[in-house]
# Entry
Amino acid sequence: MNTARSRALATQEESIQNNIAQIEEAKARPTAIQAMAQRLNLSPAKLQETLRATVFKGANDSEFAALIVVANEYKLNPLTKEIYAFAAKGGGIVPLVSIDGWVRIMNEHPQFDGIEFEDIVDEKGKLYAIESIIWRKDRSRPIKVTEYLDECKRNTDPWNKSPNRMLRHRALIQGARYAFGFSGIYADDEVEIQIIGDPVEARNVTPPTRAQMIDQDTGEIIDTVTDDNPNAAEGRAEADHGDQHDDSEEPHAAIVAELIERAAGAGTIIDLKAVEKDWQKHMEALPDGENSRIDAAVSERREHLESK
# Structure
């Protein structure tokens, strides 16, 4: 006899079986690192070891997991530097995507139907903006985005050597964002990550005095009174009163030596970008000749790393 109790027991048993099936399905589903390892034809253990030692170096467990999820979401290959980790200003790690990665995810989008670039020049024929024009198969009109050189250009080696190409990359990336809604990833020239984290206080670019010391870990000038640098305030006061010392260039030499040594020992492009970032903090206070020496060391190391 089909009583209410028997029907309730049958419903409960069906619910239990469904829950068991869902649990078993979840257990059989590969983890994010397993999914990436399968996609790249590597063992999960070897892939994790490699990523932690190279492009995802410095990421904690949570950040590492987030980077893997983002890479899988966009089917990017971190081993070919399509995506890598970068330290944000306020702390933490953000996923940076190279131009090759952006081109890949745009080309693999099912609605992508082509892209064109329009150079915009002034009355003297000098390029000052580039417009990207992207077509989607499901839209009747293209998406157009204009990027301006004076807003995008940064004082880095790639921008100084190839500003037109870098601006074209910028127009492509911003156009792809508008056209396809890509989110959670950032361009690899660091522009976007400037807004991440806490605001950065303005730095004092007054040339350092002999009383100021160099932080050996970061390469920054220590200009506050600490146990390691008790004379910092005194040195700054002397500078304010015009009591300059003949040996005031010694900290310059220490900064330059530190940055050149770090550039030469950089094991990845990420490490080299960190050197460039610290260099920019001191650039205005260093003589042109010293900046040239640092630039040469960074360029030489970059060519070496990119040739691997």
Notes: Residues 190-214, 221-249 have pLDDT under 50 and may be disordered. The radius of gyration is 26 Å. The chain is about 50% helix and 15% strand.
